[in-house]
């Protein structure tokens, strides 16, 4: 197959040649990249230090792509022309340091894949809300456009380009994926917000993490757009000190915005080049101020891409939300159970507690990522009647909230946590799983944690 590069081809060395492509990591993005690379004429090798899942092994075998797992054979890696590194592998890994010392080009999947499409790309990043915003944006666009949803969601971007190159893509992009871009440039970039997260990957320097998020706009030109939260001081201060080329479209709950989106008398008002549309927030199925912001960002994208107002309104009305993100599970004895397992940092839990409108039994805990719980104090004082700590080490949570709440219980079992919550909650209360922590001490991942919660609730 002819190896045609699109979206410019300034990547060097050997990008777009029939060179050797080594893929580090045999997960969704890695295998997708391997398939696309092979189709474009590369000599492909996949290497994973862990165990490659059986379903991915079968894909590699079926497509006659050479692979290894549970080891990295340096001789087979260091002769690469280009290396696609899965986002989970940190730059501090000795092998990655060696690769960089040898001057081999390291890219992320979104960088590699974007070279083989002329699609209009909407790239969405942020510490919180990016999954909901990406899913909602895709939902608003798909009524009138052919559009793929990729990045951190669903089938990999590379695989979708290979199998069905959509004319438009919505990509949910993490800071780890942005760390390894070179030329990648979304036509529309969205930054939902920035709060401290993953600082262990950024030398515990907040500014490094912020800079990483802003890489989404670094290759943009004045023909491109950056949509961002104008109420987020981290974003506004950074933009004032590090101007970007793109056209800015801010959104705000409290300011009047001339070009962008704002809230007025319960309506979202979006203006782009004097073209105004008005959306009542009553159309929103999702609750909470953070979801008004997610809707503003998604609707601004839709308005930019000329989606009709009626379609936007109807799509906002019927959007169901994202699993494990403030998901309403069941109402039992007039107690509503919420699964917010995706809240793996304090800022995400802030939004969850903010949206609680009844006394709440809060299930919290897991692997602490250097959390500062202070911003939660007002909500805990006002709304939380009991805390259930679900983690191996709950010391920090106990010392932060022990004096605020009468009932604090510890457990290491989800089924037990839910049974305790059932006993503590009275008619009209909420039970909220919003851990503010990573899940790896007791669960495989946040999805596993959320599913166990839902199963335990259904078994009450």
TrEMBL record:
Keywords: ATP-binding, Cell cycle, Cell division, Cell shape, Cell wall biogenesis/degradation, Cytoplasm, Ligase, Nucleotide-binding, Peptidoglycan synthesis. GO terms for molecular function: ATP binding; UDP-N-acetylmuramoylalanine-D-glutamate ligase activity. The keyword Membrane does not apply. It catalyses: UDP-N-acetyl-alpha-D-muramoyl-L-alanine + D-glutamate + ATP = UDP-N-acetyl-alpha-D-muramoyl-L-alanyl-D-glutamate + ADP + phosphate + H(+). It is found in: Cytoplasm. GO terms for cellular component: cytoplasm. One of its GO terms (biological process) is regulation of cell shape. ATP binds at residues 126-132. Residues 324-437 form the Mur ligase C-terminal domain. Residues 124-302 form the Mur ligase central domain. Pathway: Cell wall biogenesis; peptidoglycan biosynthesis. The keyword Cell division applies. It comes from the Bacteria. It holds the Pfam family Mur_ligase_C. Its EC number is 6.3.2.9. SUPFAM superfamilies: MurCD N-terminal domain, MurD-like peptide ligases, catalytic domain, MurD-like peptide ligases, peptide-binding domain. Its main location: cytoplasm. Gene3D superfamilies: Mur ligase, C-terminal domain, Mur-like, catalytic domain, NAD(P)-binding Rossmann-like Domain. HAMAP family: MurD. Cell wall formation. Catalyzes the addition of glutamate to the nucleotide precursor UDP-N-acetylmuramoyl-L-alanine (UMA). NCBIfam families: murD. Belongs to the MurCDEF family. This is UDP-N-acetylmuramoylalanine--D-glutamate ligase. It comes from Mariniflexile fucanivorans.
